[in-house]
Amino acid sequence: MSIQTVPLTLPPSADPSKFSNFGRQVIGIDPGNLKPSDFAEIQQLLYKYDALLFRNVNLSPEQQYELTKAFDPKAESYGHGDHKTQSTKKSILHPDLKTIPRVPQVQLIGNGTVHNHEGLETAALKHPSHTTFHKTSVSAADEAAGITRFYRWHIDAALYDLSPPKVTTLYAIQVPQGTEQTCRYDDGTGDTLPVPLGTTAFVSGKRMFDILPRELQSVAVRARVRYAPHPYVWMSPAAAHSTGLAIESEGKELPLGELPPWTEDKIKVYPVTWKNPVTGALHFQVHPCAAQELLIDPLPEGASREGALYPDGVHITDLKDVRDLLYKMQRPAIAPGLVYPHDWKEKDLVLFHNRGVLHTVVGAFKPDQVRAFHQCNLAASDEPVGPTPEDVRQYA
C-alpha cells in the first residue's frame, strides 16, 4: 500500500502553480519506525518533492540520526564534522549549534536558554540574526514593528574536505508563538514576504534553474564553482547583502594565509547544477556566500554561439564578478511567490533534499522566547553528480 501524502499548505504569498512538484505532508506513518519498504517509498518521495513534512512526531536523537543515515548508509559524521562547529571559534556557524553529547551527529539549535536537555545541563541558544551578518539592518523601530530579513540562503555543507549531505532532518521540539513578521528584501525591488515567526524558508533549486533565460541556463550547465577553503571562517569578517543571497564585495574576507591550515586537495569544486538521483532534473545548487571562483567550460561542439555568454569558456577569479553573476542567476528564484516559509508547529519533522533546495532561517526572537530544534545531516559518502553531456548539449 502506497504512503498517503497531501500537498503542503501554502501561504497566500506563494504561487500555487510553481509548487505542484514541491513539498508533501506525509500522513499516518511514524518516521522513527519505518519498515524498509516504507523507507524506500519515503526516499523516492523526498527526491521527487524535495521536502516532506511529518506532524505530531515523537523522535529521539537516536531515531533522527538513524532516519537521516538511512538516506546514505555509509555516512557517519555530522555535515560539518563532529564537534567541529564548536572548535572552530572563528566560524560564523560556531554560535548557532550545540552538539547532543550522546549523538554528536545531531545538533540542538534555536533561541533562549534550555535546561537539562538530552545530556546538556544548560544550553544558551541564539537564533541567527541578520543584524550580525548583513552589511545593513532594519531599524530598531522597524524590527519592533515586525520587519525582518532572510538571514543567509545556503546549502547545509562544509564545502571543504567533507561532501555535502544528501538530506537534512529538522525536528521542532519547542516553538514560541508570536505574531507574523514581514521579511523585507531591501534591494530596491520593493519585495516583501509575510512570514510566520521563526520560519525556515525554502526555495527549489530545480525552479531556480528552470526559470533562467536560455543564455544563463547555458552558463549554469557549463559552470563549476570553486569554494574558498574553510569558507565559514573565510567569510566571517565580511558582511552580507540585504537578501542574504550574497556577500558584499568589500575585500573583508579573511586572507587565505590567516585561515586554519588547509590543503589544495580538500578544496571543493562542484558543478553549478546537480542532477536529481530520482527525477534526473537539474537543480541549481550553489552556496553563494562561500563561492570564490567560477570555471565555465566552452560551448560544446555544434552549439549555436548566437547570444551565448562566455562561448569560449572563462575562469572568473574576481570575487565581485563571481558574486554578481551568481546573484543574477539566483535572485529570481527567491521572489516572494517562489518561497515556501514553513509555519512550524511543535513535533513537526521536516526532511529536505539538501542537494535540491536552498534554505534560510528568518526572523528575530526576544531573548526569553525559547525555540528548540534538533537538526541532523551527515557528510555524504559521495559527491553530487553534475549534468551529463546530453544535458549540456540540451541547454547550451
UniProtKB/TrEMBL annotation:
This is Clavaminate synthase-like protein. It holds the Pfam family TauD. Belongs to the TfdA dioxygenase family. The keyword Hydrolase does not apply. The keyword Iron applies. Gene3D superfamilies: Clavaminate synthase-like. InterPro entries: TauD-like_sf, TauD/TfdA-like, TfdA_dioxygenase. SUPFAM superfamilies: Clavaminate synthase-like. Keywords: Dioxygenase, Iron, Metal-binding, Oxidoreductase. Residues 22-376 form the TauD/TfdA-like domain. GO terms for molecular function: dioxygenase activity; metal ion binding. Its cofactor is Fe(2+). It comes from Russula ochroleuca.
